[in-house]
Amino acid sequence: MPPCGQPAHPSPPTWQHGGVTAATHSTLFPQGPHGGSQYPDPAGGADAVLEGLDPEQREVATALHGPVCVLAGAGTGKTRAITHRIAYGVRAGILQPSSVLAVTFTNRAAGEMRGRLRQLGASGVQARTFHSAALRQLQYFWPKAVGGSLPRIVDRKIQLVADAAAACRIRLDRGELRDVTAEIEWSKVTQTVPADYTAAAVKAGRDAPRDRAEIAQLYSAYEDIKRDRSVIDFEDVLLLTVAILQDQHDIAEAVRAQYQHFVVDEYQDVSPLQQRLLDLWLGERNNLCVVGDASQTIYSFTGATPDHLLDFRTRHPEATVVKLVRDYRSTPQVVHLANGLLAQARGRAADHRLELISQRATGPEPGYAEYTDEPAEAEGAARRIRDLINSGTPASEIAILFRTNSQSEIYEQALADVGVPYQLRGAERFFDRPEVKRAIHALRGAARFGDNDSLLDDAPDLPSQVRAVLSGDGWTHQPPAGSGAVRERWESLAALAHLAQDFAAAKPDATLGDLVAELAERAGAQHAPTVQSVTLASLHSAKGLEWDVVFLVGVAEGMMPITYAKTDEQIEEERRLLYVGVTRAREHLSLSWALSRSPGGRHNRRPSRFLDGLRPGSVTTNGGTATGSGGSGGIERGTPGSVPGETRRTNRTPARCRVCGRTLSDAGEMKLMRCDDCPSDMDEGLYERLRTWRAAQGARSGQPDFCVFTDRTLMAIAEAVPSTPVELARIPGVRARKLTRYGTDVLAICAGQEPETGEDEE
Fold first, then answer.
1. What is the distance in angstroms between the CA of the first residue and the CA of the last residue of the chain?
2. How far is residue 673's CA from residue 689's CA, in Å, rounded to a whole number?
3. How many C-beta atoms lie closer than 10 Å to residue 20's C-beta?
4. Among residues 105, 187, 305, 594, which one has the fewest Cβ atoms lying within 10 Å of its Cβ?
5. What confidence tens digit (pLDDT) does each residue in 509-552 have?
6. pLDDT at position 718 over 50
């Protein structure tokens, strides 16, 4: 055993290796944001690909040259936009399919992208994860660059970490092993070597699970063990690919000759190591399209950072930037809450937030429920879910989302008690489950030798054949009572039965062999079938999914934000995590919390601070709203040598209260140019007329009132009573776009007249 050396990070949660997918639509039944389910005729011309896209999506699809940055809010059809972009380029003869590399973060997302591209007539495009693309290159070039065959990749590094701990005579329990492993992963994706771990962890403000010097020692020993055993890990795939491309120019040029155009999805989640690899792939070229949303940055603990997305225009001044803000997923009521959450956010990501505009019909208001204790909260959610299912809502369209996986058990039991089927997302991957492997093996055998299988004698169609094969593996039509492993195995087999039924409906002539081929393709893409049961998932593992009905539970201080979130940056990431949870809901959204953990416990909990000012009866505690370059959708075209959005810095005098003269720092006070406590000279009648006008504007455009003007801005207008466009433009919150759109109306109201415009201009 080599001498002990030196560091590590929590295993990236299930977002990278997801389990059963919930209510995401199968690639068999693709649906666009506009509700359509048809793809353009693959034999049609390039323009056929553009049909059905909104103006911003169309701009993405036709921006095929130079750097392009797509800022895409939740539910705005980003995957639709970028797949149509690739397909349009291929059909127009501008892009060669084999020269395009689209990268994303999960096998499932890559598989879905490949499926959409095939149906759009753009087969041959490579859509892969960073690791998958790097591994292919590493395997191909390793013999030339290093010699011999590529070392074996370890499936689970936790055993190697345990061996490193033993070598260093450091005792770690199972939880500490997991946490130290996570620290090692973070170190590697941030390109931190063992000797630099301590300083890097301090600089990053990481909450180390052990003494930092010990982690550095364990990290070094871990690397020694890997070298001695001639194995590499998941992160080494990227590190080694970077090293080869960096040192071997002929290999780098060969890769660049193969790939001419790059598309990167979920760009806010790129780590420094992934960005380094992307830079090497690109070389000196700029044919790059990135897609992301800084407000959905929730994996910073794994090394992900939105800085690459937010700095894109700085690095590429000539870039075209397209903002997608038309939300096709959620109702105006859900979108209103989502926008409200971000309106109170602070920090760099908040400055670049996107204000979503729902494109759906109106729906129910989000519900808020307070319970005495956690069991009562779980029972309340379970009863409501049972009633929803009884009234016709499919169980697969319902999800319960929570902050930590440890919260799932009480909801599993509550659902089992009322007879509601459920699936737990984020445990073992669906196609890795033993019962699924056995079932697929049995189906494959039946497809090959079905004529001699008595099980299939009375099975006239594909669904009944599948059910017959599954019954031989212990599956029954009725679920077992209770929860636990037996119920989970049944749910896995039930998912296969339902998939067979959907597959047969989409392809009436399909055979058992066709289904087996479909399952093989899904297994390769980790595209698990939809299970006819309620989904239980952590907020992290729910990213990228959506349901008709979402229950956000445990939305209380100490859980949301989580207790160990101490810094401003950590608190803001917790807010973004709740935002991700809210935007998973298409129509019905319920948020709940418990006043105590156990029955009879002290009622010392309160609802999450993130709901202050948003839930009925509460008020905003921070008194301000975020400002910045978020807001409406649209297109910004860059100019070489300039950085749009940046203005020359000038020496500004501090903002002071116009009543008492105190220096102002709060955004809300600066908007009013006075302290909250100082007397207001607001024209109350004017303020109410402005509110009435704003409500009409919001109703006409189908967006929340505050998207027109916030209450603070209306108060500032009612205090200043501007009479000219210049005076109105001086009021914070009245930017150029809103001045153009609403200025005439507002000045008319301030003058005591009726607004001249009768329509909300686009």
1. 70
2. 22
3. 26
4. 305
5. 888 889 998 888 777 666 666 667 899 999 999 998 999 999 99
6. yes
If you ran DSSP here, which 8-state letter would residue 302 be given? G
- C-beta separation of 372 from 596 below 8 A: yes
Q: How far is CA 156 from the centre of its chain?
A: 25
Residues contacting 166, CB < 8 A, separation 6+? none
Please name the amino acid found at residue 575.
R
Question: What CA–CA distance (Å, rounded) separates 739 from 526?
Answer: 49
pLDDT for 412 beyond 90: no
Number of H helices, E strands in the chain: 27, 17
pLDDT computed for residue 531 by the predictor: 67
**Of the ranges 149-163, 358-372, 491-505, 516-530, which one carries the lowest mean pLDDT score?**
516-530
Buried b (16+ CB within 10 A) or exposed e, 256-270: beebebbbbbbbbbb
Contacts of 390 (CB under 8 A, 6+ apart): none
**Helix (H) / strand (E) containing 505:** helix 485-506
DSSP for 703-760 reads S-GGGT--HHHHHHHHHH---SHHHHHTSTT--HHHHHHHHHHHHHHHTT---S--S-
Count of residues making up the chain: 762
Q: Starting at the earlier edge strand, list the strands of the sheet with 634-637.
A: 126-129, 100-104, 261-264, 288-292, 68-72, 320-324, 634-637
pLDDT at 36: 42
Percentage helix, strand, coil, to 5, in the chain?
45, 10, 40
**Token pair 């690459």: residue:** 308
Contact (Cβ atoms closer than 8 angstroms) between residue 304 and residue 269: yes
Q: Which amino acid is at 135?
A: L
Distance CA 261, CA 282 (A): 8
Task: Provide φ and ψ at 422, rounded to 5°.
Answer: -145, 165
| Both structure tokens of 20 | 């059963």
Q: For residues 633 and 60, what is the distance between their CA atoms, to the nearest angstrom? A: 12
